[in-house]
Amino acid sequence: MKNEVYYVKSLEEDFTTKTIKNKRKVSFQTIQNIIKTKAIKPNTKSFGRERRLSCTMLSKSYIKTYRPHGIVFQTEERPSYIFPFDLVLLSATDRIIVHYYRIKNNLHVYYNHTLIPGFEKFIFKDLHSMIQKYPSPRIVWKEVNKFRVKNGYKVLPDSKYRLVEYNEAVFHKTIKINPIALFGYLPQTRKIARQLHLSYFVSAKHFYDKFNHEK
Q: In the structure, how many helices (H) and strands (E) does the chain have?
């Protein structure tokens, strides 16, 4: 696994990606379509940035995910850039919500925030350079708090810490993928994985631990 990169795309409980249309969250791409086409389309548009596909690159330091359900895959495409945390931590507001279920019906409100000027300092071109600078979430947690305070925002409480436990790898185009596995704790996840002839894991961490151990 040391020489391989595994990505995660978090999915909703119904195993679809969503997008915002006329202030409403609507289904965008189903897991069945993703597997059939072996492609994932950009679905997120927020913080004044162009539509993008946000994923997580799994590593020893980053094995958590935005949502507890999703697909593990590989791709030959390279991300346009990577943030060492959820992009929401750079939004120009003190009202940052950790749990997705609390904002999923009002995404248009939170996604209309702008980013704090100077946020580009947290952009990286690849996972290696990011981990060299921030080898652990705890280090980047201190740095993003210093950045926010310097720009007039409050120190983030520890309750927001999980937002640095996964990174955000961004693609600006549809990417071709090699599907590897589905993960999620809901009973139907295993069933869907079986139907799509994919391996199943309770979480992305379980997937990473298994493959890292086997290597």
A: 6, 11
Query: Checking phi first, is residue 119 left (phi over 0); if not, alpha (psi -120 to 50) or beta?
Result: alpha
Number of structural domains (the chain) is: 1
Whether 21 maps to a domain, the answer reads yes
The tens digit of pLDDT for each residue in 10-34 reads: 999 999 998 877 767 788 999 999 9
Q: Residue 90: which domain range?
A: 7-178
CB atoms within 10 A of CB 10: 20
Any domain includes 171: yes
With respect to residue 161, please indicate whether it lies within any of the assigned structural domains. yes
Tokens representing 154 are: 């409050």
pLDDT for 53-65, tens place per residue? 999 999 998 999 9
| 76 burial type by CB count under 10 A (0-12 exposed, 13-18 middle, 19+ buried) | exposed
Residue 173 three-state SS? coil
Specify the pLDDT at position 127: 92
Residue 52 lies in a domain: yes
